[in-house]
Specification:
homopentamer; 104 residues; mainly beta; OB fold (Dihydrolipoamide Acetyltransferase, E2P); five-stranded mixed beta barrel; two-stranded antiparallel sheet; 4% helix
Chain lengths: 104, 104, 104, 104, 104
């Protein structure tokens, strides 16, 4: 899995029938330091992720191992919202960073 | 999934029998800002995409999860035509951009 | 799928038993303009492609969706010989280009 | 498989239900000489790897071939802790390098 | 498949149980001209490849299509030892190159 940041949504009216009802997120790559990169992926949303949230996404056949993506032509799925990660015992990212007073 | 722009079609007369009748599209990579890049993929068309349209395509085993690609040696499929996407609440791409008067 | 040019053949005497009888082609990458690049792949041949021919190849589990590769440790297969492709309504490649008088 | 170094852990509270109980490791890429690179992957832990350990991880559908990842939306798994590797008969990495007196 | 050169072996004592008995090879990438590159992969050995031999390896789910890797968390397998390959009718690599008198 890789980290990504939800940048927006993708609207597709004409599509494979099995994709009806799936929410498609535009997810930008995030590196190990938390920086957003140039790469992106369009992923099905299985966890109700919102704009700006940092998420985990899985690709390939693993992206079809959720109830909503099973058997569908989908090669990427957001399967977790990241609370925090650390590198060498230092917290690199926490979702509460930008709202310290209210949430922490 | 990734964004792509339909650049043309590919004709192959001598091919695996199971591919008979499949339409093969030449799809150029499109980045998150809507720019066409150097990369490309040849993908089976499952939605009737036309020249110049911006599409979504899936790769790997996920490309075989449509009625027309099931069980075939196909590793990329166009499974949606993109209407619009946004980045940080700004519309980056809309298929109606080049025909504002007539279509919007 | 991607375009490739058949550059040669690969001989392997000691190999997984299931690979007996498979023809292994050395295929060089071809970009969207028809130029041969540095990359390559070794692919099983399912269509009788010859030296110098421009082909389509599929990778991953999709490479096992032909009669000759089914259930074998093969991650790339040549599944079509390219006649022609076009970009924005201009023909970029045609297999008859080098033999215009005789074949067209 | 590739070598990686366990850099930390990833916490995700809101996630696909099937992921409950899985430990998610942040694994940084390690090259053939043992150097840590910029790349990373988030992988499920199937062997009880600890911070700083050099591990082997598998990706794609192969990452689901363990008891704890079977059928789950997981595309990377740590499936081995590396004791040692050599290149051209010279030991490049050994896990006992930093504790020679105590452990060897 | 890609060409690789067996650079050494990898020892992992603590690993997924299903991997017991598998020999893990460190394989360096080899380009189309026969040059060894910076990249590498750790692959299960299904053919008894020795140090310094040039091999073919397959990745992804295709790496599990051998008797010894079936159902295991392994994403790369050495499935052939290369005797020779040619590019445009010129032999680029032959395993007998370094022992011309004795073997050819």
């Amino acid at each position: 899995m890789l980290f990504g940041k939800v940048a927006g949504t993708v609207v597709s009216t004409r599509k494979a029938e099995s994709l009806e009802g799936l929410k498609l997120l535009l997810v930008r790559n995030v590196d190990v330091t938390g920086e957003v990169g140039k790469g992106y992926v369009v992923a099905a949303d299985s966890v109700g992720a919102g704009l700006g949230e940092v998420v985990l996404y899985a690709t390939g056949s693993s992206a079809r191992q959720t109830d909503i993506t099973n058997g569908k032509p989908v090669d990427a799925v957001v399967m977790g919202i990241v609370d925090t990660w650390d590198v060498d015992d230092k917290t690199v990212y926490t979702k509460y960073a930008s709202a310290k007073t209210a949430d922490v």
